[in-house]
Every structure is written in C-alpha cells, then in structure tokens.
Task: inverse folding
C-alpha cells in the first residue's frame, strides 16, 4: 500500500535523505531506529509534506482504492485527508483554540473529503470522550487550548488521541516515546496497540528499544546517513540495544 | 483585461462595495457659517442647537488637524467636501411605506431588512444613509417600556430637555479637531434613552451606510441609561468602493447613572481601499462613555476590520464610585490599511475598575498601532486596571506597535499590563494542515483562538459575523 523508492531530500541545500527505500503493507508495524541526525525525523516530515524540505529524487507511492498515486504531488492537507498521519515529535501550540474545536475541524475535513456527514459539536464531544478513555485522558482536556501548557506526556497522548480520532491508514509516530516516563509510555503504547488493525499500518520512529517492548514491530530498520542500512525482524532492535550502531555502519 | 480581473477579485473581497442609484439632495461643497445655518434649517432645529453648532464651528476654525497618530495620509481639504447629502424623499415620511424602495433594497442587500415581515427579531434598527436616518424599527415595542430610540434629529425636536442636558456632556464641543468639526456639522445618528429600572427588551442597533461620493459622514450618537437600567447596543458600517478617500468623523457619547449598564459593540467594515491603498474611508471617531452614577458599567467591544485609516479610542470616564469600564478590541489591518486605535480609562471614583483587552492583527503592508491611556486620579482610591495588548503579524511586510501610557496619582491603585507580539508561524500552519485543514482553515482557526477573549464579549450573531469578516479579510494573505 505504501512504497518509498530512492527518496532523496534536502533542507537549505543540505542533503539529508540520500536514497531511502521502504515498503509497508496493511497490518504491519515497522520500526525505524538510528543515531541522531540519520534522517529519521526528516523521513517522517517529507512523507507528511513539510514545506521546508525539497525532494530531489525518488517516489513515494501510495495506494488509494487500488490505484497507485505519487504522494509527493499532493498537498499536505490532501495527504492527511487520504489517511496519512504523523504524530509530531514536538507538537505545536495553538493558543485560544480548544482541543475539541481543533479536533472536530480536522475530523470534519476528513469526513467531507470522504463524502461522509460532518459531526455536530455535541455528538463529536461524545465521540471524543470515548477515544480519550483509550488514553486515560481527563475530560477537561477537551476545553484546554491545543497543547498550551500541556506536559510532555500530555502532548504525546494528545498526538495519539488525534490518531484515534482521525483513523489514518498509515500512521508515522515520530519519537512518540521520547520524554515519557514509564507509566505514560505504557498508556501511550496500549493506546497505539488498540489502534492496530489489519487494514492500517504504523511506522514507529524511535531511538530506544524500550518502546518496542510494548509495541511489537514486524520489521525493524536501521537508518544511517540518510539511508536504511539494515532491515530485519524485531530481533534487530535487541541487537542494536546490545551492540549500538557501529557494527552496522 | 487585467483591470477587469482585479475588479472581480476586489468585489468578492468587499461585497458591500456597491453604489445605490438614488436621487439626492446635497449642499454645495465647502464649509461656512452659512452652510451650518442651512443644515440646521433643513433639519428644522431650534435656535439653541444652531447656536451650539456655530459655537463649535467658531472654535474649530482656531484648531489644527492633529498629526501625532502613527500613520500618514495626504492633506484633507475641508472645503472640497459636501457636508450634507440625503436621498430625496417625501417630507415627513411617516412609516416605512413612504420610504424609497431603493433605500429599502439597499439595506436589505446589506443584510438589514427594515420592512415589517422580514426585519430582524430581537433587534431594533436605526438605518442611517449618508446624512440622514431612513427608518427605525420596533419603535412600538420599545415605547411600551418607555425606551426612546430614534434619530438624533428627531430627538433634538421631540426631547430637547434630554439632548440639551447630555449632548456634549461627555465629549465637549471643544474636545478635539474632529469632534469639534462633528459638533458643527453632524447631520444624523441615533438617540437612545433607557428610563429608570428598565432593562431594554431588544438589542438596539444602528447601521451606518455611506453612499454619496465626496461627502463626509458626521454622525452623532447619544445613549443615556438612567438608574438601574440596561441596554445593549450594536453598530455596523459599510460604504461603496471608490477611488477617492472619504471622511467619516463621528462622535458617540454614553452616559450611565447609578447601577446602570451600557454595552456598546461595533463591527466596523468601511471600505478600506484597494490592494495598492487607493481609496477607502478615513475614520476619525471620538467615542467616550461616562460612568456618572455609582456601580455603573460601560463596555466597548469593537471589531475594526475596515477603513483606510482608523483613529479611534473608545474611552470610559469612571466617575461614580465602584464603576466599571471595559474595552475589548480586535483591529485587523490588511493591504495598506493604517490603524491607530486603543482606549482611555480615566479613574476618578473610588474602587473603580477597568479592563482592556486589545488584539491587533496586521498583514500585507498594513500598519497597526495600539495606543492606550490608563489614568488614575488622586481621588480614585483602590482603583484597578488590567490591560492586555497582543499583536499578531501575518507576513513580513506589516507593522505592529503598542503605545501604552500610564498616569497614576493615587498610591492605592493596582495596575497590570501584559503585552505580546507573535507571528503565525509555519510550524502551526503545517501542524494544522497535516491534520487535514487547508491553509485558510488553519489561519482562521489560529486567528479565532487569538481573538477569542474579544469575540466572546460580542452578542452571538455579531460574533459569527465578526469571524466571517476576519476570514474574508485574511483570504489570500497566507500562502
């Protein structure tokens, strides 16, 4: 359903991605590990359509209704409406906008795109509350301005809540585990596991093996200097934990 | 061909830019004692009113146009303006059936239907077209409660004792260049009187429409709330798109007596000129309220989204003990618009409180300034003020400035001032887009969040209109 071929991208004329190849099928969970600066977060941002990065080479094929399209030709919001989701490493604050208002606006955009009926505020708040239970979130959340004065853990939970609401086909979680204490990590991981289905796929970007004890991946990839240099099953994560990255370079 | 395209684009941007074709009766251009006498005569005013106008005119001739605001504009030649322009209609038109159909159509097109079947429920409207008031709705319901809501011209004749007592009591005829000019030549406006103990059963509203070219609009509004009374008042304004600048110099005076409350809301959408800054209204307005009675309250809520130039400082004189003044403002400037706006809170009485919340949004090449004065007099024991002034910049060519002035002459006073300047940043837009919102939806959500504290002070329907107005204005300014 999703296939990256020879993807090269740069920011301010500095090449970051130097030929990434990755193929993801429905129902799979992939983990991408790698040292700082290897291009993991850049890969996530390029897939989501961040305007600061320029793609210089390669394709990202995405299958919609048995039709393959080049994701790179779509606007950021079109990608989102077609089921691409990125959980941000550093979620952005939107002062004055209640979380429920933001989430409903996003949810309704996707409904509109899919030809489904939009939800009114009362029904949406109910829907939102059921999803919040998944992540053990307080009801007060819905009135708080988006990410403003949220703790690190709350911000990350809010990202996964958005994933639960928007129900993407491909979710890329960019270092969702960083900055989480062990309890929050467990809650977030449980939430993600509940969202795993046969028809969606998840890509986890992480520094640590820790997260992969909770969310068991089907494949683990190691990225180095803008390329995926090694791909194996889940056991690769343990090897990395044990030996570091040097032996792979 | 290029011009045609621009025209279309512009029309979508400002849907109130049409011109009503109607026969008018106008004075020759220029300002003189004769013109003022003629104005007073055509309105059938009593001698005291004429004398007051002439006194103001005499004083005005000794004054010079102020140039301290932080904006620039070409010189205004006051002798090339027309000071009175009115649609021709039957003398003493009684009731709506005698009002010109073109005028009714104009107001309907502006979303202000005046006739019996379609008019807005819950809101009484006074419709002002160029120099005169065309019609006032729901007068019967108001009369039952003893509320007087009519044009100021009618009030001068029908309620001279009230007008004489209060006109100029908050903004004296000698107050400032533009207010003095207005005192000499004001042609119409609204008058409201809420008797003791009455909670006005309807929202009162005035809609100001400038139509004629090269004509100044000088309206005057006077609202008096007697002991224990309450009124909520709304004001809206639009004008056609013209290449020449037009002058609008209004004066609004509010008076609250013991325990009374006036809420005054404005959504100002005068034509602001085209993309290159050509044309638009010069909006020089003096708005001031006086909390004369103890425990009385005045609040100004404004959404300023139009006019080429805005010079406006809705203020409150807190004279009665425990009185409360509030100012909530959103000022949006785009293209080449310039705004120098804010408030003055003058604390005189004991335990008086004031709140100032100002949100300035600037985009394109616009220049947006907040200017505010908090003055605590020696008599104002226990006075309190809270001010918050936030500016948001959209794009790289616009400007925002804040000029807060504070004068405290009583050591028991407590003042707080918060200010911030922010930019809509690319990360915010990307975040929202990555959740499925388009660029405009994203900006609109961010701006709404920014203005929330002000919008929640507006009556619901107005707040929806204000949101739509800002969205329309910001269309295309974020790529």
Result:
């Amino acid at each position: 359903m999703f296939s990256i071929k020879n993807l090269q991208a740069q920011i301010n004329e500095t090449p970051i991605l130097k030929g990434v190849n990755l193929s993801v099928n429905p129902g799979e969970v992939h983990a991408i590990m790698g040292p700082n600066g290897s291009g993991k977060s850049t890969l996530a941002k390029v897939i989501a359509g961040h305007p600061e990065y320029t793609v210089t080479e390669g394709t990202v094929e995405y299958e919609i209704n048995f039709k393959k399209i080049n994701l790179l030709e779509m606007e950021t919001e079109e990608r989102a409406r077609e089921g691409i989701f990125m959980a941000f490493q550093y979620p952005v604050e939107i002062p004055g906008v209640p979380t429920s208002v933001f989430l409903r606006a996003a949810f309704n955009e996707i409904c509109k795109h899919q030809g489904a009926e939009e939800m009114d505020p009362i029904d949406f708040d109910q829907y939102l509350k059921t999803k919040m239970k998944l992540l053990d979130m307080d009801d007060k959340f819905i009135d708080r301005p988006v990410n403003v004065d949220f703790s690190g853990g709350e911000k990350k939970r809010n990202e996964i809540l958005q994933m639960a609401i928007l129900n993407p086909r491909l979710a890329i979680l960019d270092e969702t585990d960083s900055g989480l204490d062990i309890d929050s990590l467990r809650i977030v991981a449980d939430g993600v596991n509940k969202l795993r289905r046969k028809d969606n796929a998840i890509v986890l970007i992480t520094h640590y093996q820790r997260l992969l004890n909770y969310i068991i991946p089907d494949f683990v990839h190691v990225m180095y200097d803008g390329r995926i240099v090694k791909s194996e099953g889940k056991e690769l994560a343990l090897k990395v934990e044990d030996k570091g990255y040097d032996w792979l370079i | 061909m290029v011009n045609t395209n621009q025209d279309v684009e512009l029309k979508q941007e400002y849907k109130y830019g049409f011109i009503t074709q109607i026969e008018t009766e106008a004075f020759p251009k220029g300002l003189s004692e004769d013109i003022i006498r003629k104005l007073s005569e055509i309105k059938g005013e009593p001698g005291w009113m004429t004398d007051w106008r002439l006194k103001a005119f005499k004083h005005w001739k000794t004054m010079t146009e102020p140039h301290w605001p932080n904006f620039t504009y070409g010189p205004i030649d006051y002798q090339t303006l027309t000071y009175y322009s009115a649609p021709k209609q039957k003398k003493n038109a009684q009731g709506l059936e005698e009002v010109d159909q073109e005028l009714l159509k104009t107001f309907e097109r502006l979303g202000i239907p005046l006739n019996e079947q379609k008019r807005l429920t819950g809101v009484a409207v006074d419709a002002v077209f160029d120099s005169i008031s065309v019609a006032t709705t729901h007068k019967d319901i108001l009369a039952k409660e003893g509320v007087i809501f009519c044009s100021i011209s009618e009030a001068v004749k029908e309620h001279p004792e009230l007008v004489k007592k209060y006109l100029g009591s908050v903004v004296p005829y000698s107050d400032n260049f533009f207010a003095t000019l207005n005192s000499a030549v004001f042609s119409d406006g609204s008058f409201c009187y809420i008797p003791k103990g009455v909670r006005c059963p309807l929202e009162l509203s005035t809609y100001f429409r400038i139509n004629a070219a090269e004509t100044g609009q000088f309206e005057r509004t006077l609202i008096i709330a007697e002991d224990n009374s309450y009124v909520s008042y709304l004001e809206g304004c639009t004008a056609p798109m013209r290449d020449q600048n037009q002058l609008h110099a209004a004066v609004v005076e509010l008076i609250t007596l013991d325990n009374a409350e006036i809420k005054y809301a404005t959504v100002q959408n005068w034509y602001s000129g085209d993309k290159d800054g050509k044309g638009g209204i010069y909006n020089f307005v003096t708005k001031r309220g006086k909390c004369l009675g103890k425990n009385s309250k005045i609040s100004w809520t404004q959404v300023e989204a139009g006019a080429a130039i805005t010079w406006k400082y809705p203020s409150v004189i807190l004279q009665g003990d425990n009185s409360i003044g509030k100012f909530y403002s959103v000022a949006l400037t785009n293209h080449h618009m310039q705004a120098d706006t804010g408030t003055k809170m003058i604390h005189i009485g004991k335990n008086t409180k004031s709140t100032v919340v100002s949100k300035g949004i600037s985009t394109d090449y616009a220049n947006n300034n907040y200017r505010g004065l908090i003055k605590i007099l020696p008599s104002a024991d226990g006075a309190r003020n809270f001010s918050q002034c936030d500016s948001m910049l959209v794009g790289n060519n616009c400007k925002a400035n804040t000029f807060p002035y504070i004068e405290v002459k009583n050591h028991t006073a407590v003042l707080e001032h918060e200010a911030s300047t922010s930019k809509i940043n690319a990360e915010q837009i990307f975040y929202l887009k990555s959740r499925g919102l388009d660029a405009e939806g994203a900006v609109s959500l961010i701006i709404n969040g920014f203005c929330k504290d002000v919008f929640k002070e507006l009556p619901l329907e107005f707040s929806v209109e204000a949101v739509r107005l800002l969205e329309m204005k910001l269309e295309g300014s974020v790529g």
